[in-house]
Structures are given as C-alpha cells and as structure tokens.
Amino acid sequence: PKRLTRHNSQVEILGAHLSSALGTDTDINDLIALGYNIRQREPLEIQNNNLAPRLSLTWDPWADGKSKGFASWGRFYDKLFLNTVTLEQGPDTVTRFYRFDADGIDLLGRPDNQFGKSLSQAAPSAFQVDRSLSTPFTDEMTLGFQREIAPEVSLGITLIRRDFHNQLQDIDVNHYTVRNPVTGLYADDLGDEILAGAIKGSPPAQLPDGIPDLYIQNFFFNRVFRLGNYNEQTYRAVELEMVKRLSRKWQMEASYTWSRAEGDAETFLSENGDDPTMSEYEYGYLDYDQTHVIKLNAVTYLPGDWRIGGTATWASGLPYSYIQEVEPNDDVGYFQSRRVYGYNNTAGHFVPENRNSHRNPAAYNFNARVEKNFVMGKASASAFLEIFNLLNSDSLRVYAYDSGVTRFNTFGTREFGRRFQLGIQVSF
After folding, report:
1. pLDDT at residue 257 in the model
2. Disulfide: which of 85, 152, 265, 402 matches 272 by Cβ 3.0-4.6 Å?
3. What was the pLDDT predicted at 203?
4. CB 195 within 8 A of CB 257
5. Which residues pair with 34 in a beta bridge?
6. Using an 8 Å Cβ cutoff, are 300 and 335 in contact?
7. Is 174 exposed, middle or buried (0-12, 13-18, 19+ CB in 10 A)?
8. What is the reported pLDDT for 194?
9. How far apart are CA 95 and CA 21, in angstroms?
C-alpha cells in the first residue's frame, strides 16, 4: 500500500486468444492453478569491490629530449548504481486496448471518454535484476610516439583501444522467436486481427502483419525485462596531432582522428535487446560514432593586451537507423510496443537492418573568441566575447527514421544556430 501498487497476481488479464491457447477461460486463478509461481520477494546483494591494475611506460629512444614513445594499459571499473536494482520494485506496467466509443457514453448513460469495451488487457510487464550482476569495466590500451619536427612544433601519433565489458542492458526474457523452416527467416503468421465474420465468443482470426512474430513463455507476464551484463562495446581510434607551443605570441593545436565505436546499446534502458527478433541486428555503430574528425584550435596575443582565438571542426556524420514502431498482438493477443530495425519493401515484406546502418551528412563548426585584459583601480580584469557556430549553420542530425506503414516520422534535431556570449572577470 505505501507504494500504491498491486502485485501482478492481482491484476486481471483479458486476451482474445488466451482461452484457446490455455484450453480454459482467461482468469488469473486459472493460471495459478496451472502451476505458475507467484513472484516472491528475494534478497539482492551487490558488491563493487574490484581490483583495477594500471601500467604506463615512457621512453626517449635517442635521449635528446625531442622524442617520446609511450604505452599504457589499464582496467577501469564503473559502478553499480542504485537505479539498476530499484526498477525491480515496480510499479509493473499494464498495456490495455479498447474499442472506440463514438458517442462517449456507456450502456448505462455514463460518460466513458469514448473508451468502449476492452479488447485486450495484457498481463503486467515487469523488471527483474540478474542475481549474478557484476560491475562493468573497461580495458584501455594506448600506444604512441611524439617527435619535435621543428622548434616549438611537435608531431605525434596515438593508437587507442578500448573494450567495454559487462555493460548493463535489459533484455526481454519472456518471449521467443520461431523461424520458417523453408526460408530460414523469422515467422510472420500473427499480429493482424480480422474481426469481421468471427463467431461470437471465439477468438478472432489472425493474419501476417509484416513484423516478425513473438511467442510468449509465461502467460502470467507480458514482457519481463531482465537487467544484466549483456552489453559489449568497443572503441578503436588512430589520432594524428600537431602541436605548436606558445612562441612568437601564438599557439596552435591540430588533430585528425579516425575512430570506430560499436556495441549493443548506448544506455542500460535502451530499447535495444527488448525485442528477441532484433537480437542479431542490434550490434552496430554507437550513436556517437564518427569515422573522421578534424580539429583546429589557435590563439594569438596582440598588442594592447588583446587575445584572439578560435576553433574549427569538421566531422563525418553520426549514424541513425530505419525503424518501425508498432503495436502487434502476437501469440495470445498481448499488445506490446515494439521497435524493430528495418523497413517494408514494395512487396510488403519486412527487411531487417543492423542498427545505425545509415549516416548523416558530414558537418562543420566554427567558434571564435576575443578577449581584452585591462586594469580597474587596484584590480585586474578582462572582458570577452564568444561566438558559437560562427557561420550560423543549421545542419540536421537525424536519430531515427520511422518508415512504418501508417506513419513516416523523422526524429532529429537541428543545430541551434549562431550564439553569442559576453562576460567579464575581475581579480582582486
């Protein structure tokens, strides 16, 4: 009562296909009588005691102070934060679908907000935590070499390798898939209900809906999201960097980075992994993956205590996915919101794709800053003006494109545009 929730065993279930699937009327007590166990409270103990060794080496091969070779390896542990386990406390969610009531009143003349007769009231969807949950960690290795190629100018190359292990992710463990023995593809025999002509009291017929079918394992729940160490990520990069140290009143740093970031998901509550039909397609580029990035930073000191600087960046586009967000009622008629990666071809067949297999166009960005130092009585002060997105570019970053049959949505954001920032600093 103090959480204002009900146990999932006390939630009524209504599904058009449950009676035929179970051979009995749809009722919670029938499910319990069939031997389904009611979820009980369990202890959960988490430890974050981990050994994180690190090693680094530096070598001047010619002992002239102009060259440096370096290498490092380290293991870095993250933490298991409280939110990873509090999800199991609920509340569990229930998905309901109703017929549309055009006149907005029920049979007794009471207003019903146009909610008609219930079509489906699925069993609760719940979270659970893997009792063998371990702390995520990263193994990082770097190799590099730097050399002074001219007075105050150095050139270097760095190889970076990061492997993210035991990353947290939730997956749906209450559904499974079936493949067509002829085509080898996921079966699509359910999902689209045909109500016309159905005999009263019998479940409606179902036809393919263009989305791979999901089959349930435990009718007592709809979706069971288990949080565990199911996610892996990798990052590989090569960085070329030229540094011009401050001399003759100016300095500069320029770099080029080639990188590749891949994994199963970006966040532990990502929708990746929630659909078993997409498990083989969810591994792909991470949403921050940029293959090529070029950066230039420079500043110069002018007479009269003026300072002018700026940054320039060019980067290849970030990835995005073709998705379809659908609500099919596969198997026993439990509706559920699903995100699948792919599109329907001209023949109406669903074509799955790997997540983040498309790319946004490359984008550039320029920023500038001018600063003036002066004296205010016995205090030193400075004032500055910064301009972000100097060229006022409005490049669009697309996150996903929904190519569903009934909707065509693009999810993305445009760059904010030119911005100004003015500030003053006084040191007493």
Report:
1. 97
2. 265
3. 59
4. no
5. none
6. no
7. buried
8. 60
9. 20
Check: CB of residue 304 under 8 Å from CB of residue 298: no
In whole angstroms, how large is the CA radius of gyration of the chain? 29
Q: How far is CA 107 from the centre of its chain?
A: 46
Residues with Cβ within 8 Å of residue 268, at least 6 apart in sequence: 84, 167, 168, 169, 170, 227, 231
pLDDT tens per residue across span 169-212: 989 999 988 888 888 888 888 777 665 444 445 556 677 777 88
pLDDT at 314 (0 to 100) = 97
Residue 146: which of 56, 238, 242 has the closest Cα? 242
* Cβ count near 382 (within 10 Å): 15
How far is it, in rounded angstroms, from Cα 301 to Cα 26? 79
SS3 for 259-310 is: EEEEECCCCCCCCCCCCHHHCCCCCEECCCCCCEEEEEEEEEEECCCEEEEE
Q: How many helices (H) and strands (E) does the chain have?
A: 3, 25
Please give the pLDDT value at position 17: 66
What token pair was written down for 332? 């026993």
Strand partners, 166: none
Q: Which residues of the chain have pLDDT under 70?
A: 1, 3, 15-32, 34, 36-37, 193-205, 348, 404-408
* CA 138 – CA 167 distance, rounded (Å): 9
Whole-number pLDDT of residue 358 = 92
Q: How far apart are CA 257 and CA 156, in angstroms?
A: 12
Rounded alpha-carbon distances, angstroms, from residue 349 to 342, 345, 353, 421:
10, 6, 13, 52
DSSP annotation of 64: S
In this structure, are residues 295 and 255 in contact, taking their beta carbons and an 8 Å threshold? Answer: yes
Give per-residue pLDDT as tens, 118-170: 777 788 888 889 888 899 999 999 999 999 999 999 999 999 999 999 999 98
Q: Decide: 342 and 324 in contact? Cβ < 8 Å.
A: yes
